[in-house]
Amino acid sequence: MITRLATAQDLRGIMKIEQESFGEDVGEESMATEAMMRDRIALCNATQPGWFWVAESDGVVCGYLILQPTHLDPDSCTSWNMATDNGTLRTTFASDGDAIFGVSLGTGSSAPSGTFYMLVYRGVLLLASTRKKSIMLCSRLPRLQKTANTRGTAPEEYWQQKDRTGAPRD
Fold it and tell me: In Å, how far from its chain's centre is CA 8?
C-alpha cells in the first residue's frame, strides 16, 4: 500500500469511499459531490506539498485524506461548515496559513488493515514538513441522525454517549 497525491483519475474510487463512509449512515446530503471532490483535488494539489492524498493498494484507491492550510484558529472553528466554507474551501484554504484543518478522511470497506493509520501518518508528516503551528480535526457522527430521529437526541448529548463497554458509541 502507498499514499500519494490524489488526481482527477481517482474520483471514482474516492466517491465510492465517500458513499460507503458517509452516504447511508450520515445521509446523502452530507456527502461531497463528485464536482466538489474534483474542485478540492485541483485546489489542494495545485502547489506543493499537496493536501489531498489517497491510499492505494494493488492499484485501487482504498482511502483518502483531505487537509487544508488555513488562517483559522481553534477558537474561530465553530463548525465544519464554517471551517471549510461549506465544503468548498474557497474562502478558508490559505497556502500561507499557519494551521491545518482536517477536511475529510475516509477508508473503503475493503481497505487493508492500517490504511487509516497510514493516512493519519501522512497528515503528521505534512504538519512537520510544512512547519505549520497546529492541526485541527473535526468528526462526523455516523449514527447521529438516525438516533436523533428516533429518540430526539441532540448532538451535544449524543457525542458523549457510551456503549456497553464504556467506549464512545460512534
Answer: 17
Per-residue burial over 93-114, b if 16 or more Cβ lie within 10 Å, else e, is beeebebbbbbbbbbbeebeee
Q: How many CA atoms lie within 13 A of 82 on its CB side?
A: 10
How many residues are present in the chain?
170
Distances (CA, A) of 138 to 103, 105, 135, 146, 165: 8, 10, 10, 20, 24
Residues in contact with 86: Cβ distance below 8 Å, sequence separation at least 6, in sequence order: none
Task: Take residue 25 and report the three cell numbers written for it.
Answer: 449512515
Give the pLDDT band of residue 79 (cuts 50, 70, 90). confident
pLDDT in tens, 15-62: 999 888 776 655 566 678 999 999 999 999 999 999 999 999 999 999
For residue 122, what is its C-alpha cell? 501522512
| Residue 169, pLDDT above cutoff 70 | no
The residues pairing with 64 across neighbouring beta strands, listed in sequence order, are: 54, 106
